[in-house]
Amino acid sequence: xxxxxxxxxxxxxxxxxxxxxxxxxxxxxxxxxxxxxxxxxxxxxxxxxxxxxxxxxxxxxxxxxxxxxxxxxxxxxxxxxxxxxxxxxxxxxxxxxxxxxxxxxxxxxxxxxxxxxxxxxxxxxxxxxxxxxxxxxxxxxxxxxxxxxxxxxxxxxxxxxxxxxxxxxxxxxxxxxxxxxxxxxxxxxxxxxxxxx
Amino acid sequence: xxxxxxxxxxxxxxxxxxxxxxxxxxxxxxxxxxxxxxxxxxxxxxxxxxxxxxxxxxxxxxxxxxxxxxxxxxxxxxxxxxxxxxxxxxxxxxxxxxxxxxxxxxxxxxxxxxxxxxxxxxxxxxxxxxxxxxxxxxxxxxxxxxxxxxxxxxxxxxxxxxxxxxxxxxxxxxxxxxxxxxxxxxxxxxxxxxxxxxxxxxxxxxxxxxxxxxxxxxxxxxxxxxxxxxxxxxxxxxxxxxxxxxxxxxxxxxxxxxxxxxxxxxxxxxxxxxxxxxxxxxxxxxxxxxxxxxxxxxxxxxxxxxxxxxxxxxxxxxxxxxxxxxxxxxxxxxxxxxxxxxxxxxxxxxxxxxxxxxxxxxxxxxxxxxxxxxxxxxxxxxxxxxxxxxxxxxxxxxxxxxxxxxxxxxxxxxxxxxxxxxxxxxxxxxxxxxxxxxxxxxxxxxxxxxxxxxxxxxxxxxxxxxxxxxxxxxxxxxxxxxxxxxxxxxxxxxxxxxxxxxxxxxxxxxxxxxxxxxxxxxxxxxxxxxxxxxxxxxxxxxxxxxxxxxxxxxxxxxxxxxxxxxxxxxxxxxxxxxxxxxxxxxxxxxxxxxxxxxxxxxxxxxxxxxxxxxxxxxxxxxxxxxxxxxxxxxxxxxxxxxxxxxxxxxxxxxxxxxxxxxxxxxxxxxxxxxxxxxxxxxxxxxxxxxxxxxxxxxxxxxxxxxxxxxxxxxxxxxxxxxxxxxxxxxxxxxxxxxxxxxxxxxxxxxxxxxxxxxxxxxxxxxxxxxxxxxxxxxxxxxxxxxxxxxxxxxxxxxxxxxxxxxxxxxxxxxxxxxxxxxxxxxxxxxxxxxxxxxxxxxxxxxxxxxxxxxxxxxxxxxxxxxxxxxxxxxxxxxxxxxxxxxxxxxxxxxxxxxxxxxxxxxxxxxxxxxxxxxxxxxxxxxxxxxxxxxxxxxxxxxxxxxxxxxxxxxxxxxxxxxxx
Lengths: 197, 964
Fold this sequence. Notes:
The complex is a heterodimer.
Chain A: H1 2-13, H2 19-30, H3 37-41, H4 68-106, H5 112-130, H6 132-138, H7 144-169, E1 187-188, E2 191-196
Chain B: H1 2-30, E1 38-40, E2 46-51, E3 62-67, E4 71-76, E5 81-87, E6 98-102, E7 105-110, E8 115-120, E9 126-131, E10 141-145, E11 157-162, E12 165-170, E13 176-181, E14 187-192, E15 198-204, E16 207-213, E17 225-227, E18 236-241, E19 250-255, E20 260-265, E21 274-277, H2 278-281, E22 292-298, E23 301-306, E24 309-315, E25 321-333, E26 338-345, E27 348-357, E28 360-366, E29 371-372, E30 380-385, E31 398-402, E32 406-411, E33 414-420, E34 426-433, H3 438-446, H4 453-485, E35 503-509, E36 513-518, E37 524-529, E38 533-534, E39 542-547, E40 557-564, E41 570-575, E42 587-588, E43 593-602, E44 608-614, E45 618-622, H5 628-637, E46 638-644, E47 649-658, E48 661-671, E49 678-684, E50 695-697, E51 703-706, E52 712-720, E53 726-734, E54 740-747, E55 749-758, E56 761-768, E57 773-784, E58 792-793, E59 803-811, E60 815-820, E61 831-836, E62 841-845, H6 859-864, E63 890-897, E64 904-910, E65 913-918, H7 933-963
Helix pairs in contact in B: 3-4
Pfam family, one (chain B): Beta-prop_EMC1_N
InterPro entries (chain B): Beta-prop_EMC1_1st, EMC1, EMC1_C, Quinoprotein_ADH-like_sf, WD40/YVTN_repeat-like_dom_sf
GO cellular component, one term (chain B): EMC complex
C-alpha cells in the first residue's frame, strides 16, 4: 500500500495546524539524532501483515548506511586540525599590524578615545592569556606545543605593543620627572636667623 | 487679534526671562562679599576736630577731623562711624596744614600750604581746588570768615597764609579776592580777631612779625609789629587769644625748643613781648611732641597740653601769663563763660565745669559721674565739647582722644562709642592658630603611643569616656546658652574650626600696643599695652610665636622684641596670644639689641627658644637651654647675620658657649655698598618655607631642579650712577659663608622697593624711571638637570652657583606692599598679593610672573604650559581680592596657612585693615559651594527606591512569562 503510506506520511508531516505536532516535528528536526527513515514510514494497516515482507519504498536501499559525511571527515581530519590550530596560534600575531595602525591613528594625546583604545589593547591579550587553557584545548596535533608557544608569544607581543603605546603616550613612570613628587626636600644642616637692624 | 495678543505675551515672557537672568548674573559674586573677608577703615590719630559751620538740614550730626595720617574725615557722632573720608598722599604734599569749615564746605590746605582744596561737608564730594603756587614752603594756615551782611559784595571767604603770602578766596565763586605776596617768611599763621580783622603772624628764625589786615581788601591796617625773639619756626605753635573784650588780642606762641611761652599784643605796637618758661607755670611733661595750644575763647583762657597733662592758663590784659589750674586730662571750652575739664585718675575719668567770673576762677563742679577710662586708653590727649541740642556745660557731650589713639564720645553720662585708631598704626602682625577644642585635645591624647598594650587600651577607654563626658558638657553648655540668648547654634568662641581657618590675628603697633582680633569678623578680642616698649628706630617690633595653642595644658606663648621708650635698650615682652594675658614680667636688657630670632630647638614643654644678640655680641637665649646636647647642637648649626642699613655692612656670626652665657663669633663680613649707596631691603628666607616640588618638569620630561638654599639672603641696594640716574642692585648671598651667589643690577630704577624671597625665586618691585611705571622683577634660581646627590643641604659644602633666569613685568599701579601666599605643603601654586596705592589688593598668579615665559613659544614650551611673554601684567578685576572695599596705605601683609591645602589666609594692615583668603589653584580639595547635596541625596534615594521596585516588577514579569 504505498499510496496510503505516502498519504499517511503527508498527513503526519503536513499538519501544521496544531501547535503540538509542529513542536514535535521541530524537535525531531532540531535534534541531530539520525532518524532512520523506515521508522517514519512504518505504517501498518492490517495486523496480520508482517512489516518486513513489504518491499522497501522506491529509492530506498536498507543496506546503505547514511554516514557518508562522517566518513569523508575522518579521511582528511588531521590536515584540517593542524591548519585550524595554526590559525588559532597565529591570530594574535596577525592582529599586531592592525594594532600598530590603530595606535598610529589614535595619536599620543591623552584623551578618552586613545585611552579606550589602549585599554582594549591591554585587555585583549590579557584576556587571551587568562583563557589560554580553553584555547589550548582546540589546539592539537604534532605541532601543538609550538603552536601554544606561538600563541602565547603573539599575546606577549600584543602586550608589549600596548606597553610601547603607553610609553609613547608618556604613561609609564620611566623618567625622573615621574618620581619628582616623591623626592624629599634637602635637609638643612645649618640654621640662619637675622635680618636688617 | 488673537495672534497679536500671543506675540505680545511672547515678548513679555522673553523680557521676564531676560530680567531674571540679569539678576542672576549680578549676584554671582556679590553674595559672597563679606563671607570670608572683612575690612576695617580708620582715620588715624586726630590733630584737630572741627565742627560744622552750618548743619541746617543735615540728617546726621557730623564732626570733622584731620589726622596725622593725612586723612580728612567726617565722623557721625551718633554712631562713631566714618561718614566719609579723604585720604591724601602719604608724604609732605598730602599733609594737611590747616582745615576750616565755612558754610557748607570744608577746606584743607595741602601741598605744604600751596593749594586749598574744598569738599562738601555733608557728602565729602570734591568741590574745587585753588592753587596758590609759589615755592615749596613749610606749611600754612587758613581761617574761614563767614559773611556778616547780605550784600552781594560780602561773601564767605577763606584767608590762607603760607610762607609766600596771604590769599583770600571767595568760596562761592572760587575767585581770589585779594592776595598779598611777601615771601621770606618761614611760617605763617592766620587768625581772625573778634572785631573781624585779620591777624597774620609770621615767624622767621628769631623774628616775629604781626600784620593786621582787612579781610575784605587785604589792606594793612596799621604798621607791622616786628619783634626779634628767639623762636624756632618749625617747633613752635601760635594762637590768638583775646584777654578781654576791649583789649586787642594777644598772640601767644609756644616755643618747644626752649619750652617757653611768648605773648605779644597784636594791637599795641609799643608793648614788648612777655616770655615765660613753662616750668615756672607748672609741672609739665618734657616730651616735645604732640604739644597742643588751645584757645578756649573765654576771658583770655587758653590751655597747653601734652602727654595727658593740661595747663589751663590765662593771659591778662597786660600780657602776663598765669596758671589757673593744672589738670591731668584735657580742657575745652563749653560756653562763653565756662570751661569743661576731662580729668583722668585711676582708670576713671570725670568731667567737670569751671566758671570764671569777676572774682576769678572758681568752683570746679562735677557734671558727670566718674566713668571708666581703661588703662589701655592711656592718658586723655584732648577733649572737645560738641555743642548739641541735648548738651550743655552741665550735661556735656564730649569727643575725646587718648594717648593710645582711642577716639571716644561721651554723652548722656556714658561713653556712647569708641574707635580704636591704634589699629591703623599696626607695624607687625601675625596670624596665630587657635587652640584645638577640648574634645579634639582628648582625641589627640588618645592616640599617644606610650606604654604597653594594656595601658594603652585602658587609656583609650578612659579617654573615650572623658570625650563622652566633655561632649555632654558641651551640649549642656550650648543648651544653657541657647536658653539664655535664644540662639542654639552659636559656635563656641575661640576654638579651631574644621579647616583651621578661624584664627587670631595679633597686631602690634609701634607704641607697644598689642591687639588680638578674631579672624572671622575683626572683632577685638583683647588689647594690652607693653609698658614702655616701642619699636626700634627704622624697623618694626619683632614678633615670635614660641608655642602655639595646640599643646593643651600649656598656654600659647609669644614674645615681642622692642626697645625701651626712654633708654633704647632691648625689651622682651611675653604674652599669651590667645587670651592676651601677660606671661611673666618683661625682660629688660641693659644694652641695645642688634638682632633676634627663633632657634630651631624646642624645650620639653614645647616652647621654641629665641635668641637676642646685643651690641656687645652677647647672645641671650630665652628660655635658657642648658643641656650639653643642645649646646653642642647650637654651636654646630646656629648662625646669625645682620645688615646695618646705615653702614651697609653685613656680618655673619656663629654662636659659642662662653662661661655661663653665649657669645657670637664673627665668621665673615662684607660691605655691599660703595659711596652714596644705601641698603633698602633685606630678605632672608622664611624659616618654614614649604616647597613641595624639587624641580620643574619640562616638556621632554626632564627635570630642571630648583636651587633651594635655605640660607640665601637677598640684599637690595639703591644708589645714583655717574650721570645722577638712580639704580638698584640686588645681591643674593649665602648667610652662612657670606659667599655672593647672584647679583643683579637695575638701571634707572628706584625705590620704594618690596622684596619677596620664597622657594627658589626672588621678586623685587621698584619704580622704573625710564618707562615711568612700577615694575616687578623675578629672579628664579635653578641648579640644572642633575639630581642632587645628597639628602641634606649644607652651605659649607655647597660650591655650586645657581643658574638664573630673570624677567621684568610692568604693573599698572604703585606697589605699597607685596607678599606671596603660603600653604601647608606648598603643593598649591603661589599667588603674589600686591597692595596698590589705589587701595586695591590684587593677586597675581605666579605663573604670570614666570621668567621662563618665552617670546615666541616653541612646541615644547607650549606643551609645558608656558604662556608667551608680555611685559604688562593684566589688571583683572576678578583678581582684586578686596573688591570695591578699598584699603589704603597698606604697610605690610601677612599670609598664613589654613588646614586646607588650597587655602591661604591674607591679612593686610596699614591705614585700613583687610582680611581675606585666597585660593591660588581654586578650591581643589573641597566640594564647591554650588555642589547640591540635596539633589544628590534625593537622586540617590530615588534611584535606590526605583531599583527595588523595578526588580520586583521584573521578577513578576519573568514569572508570568514562564507560565505562558
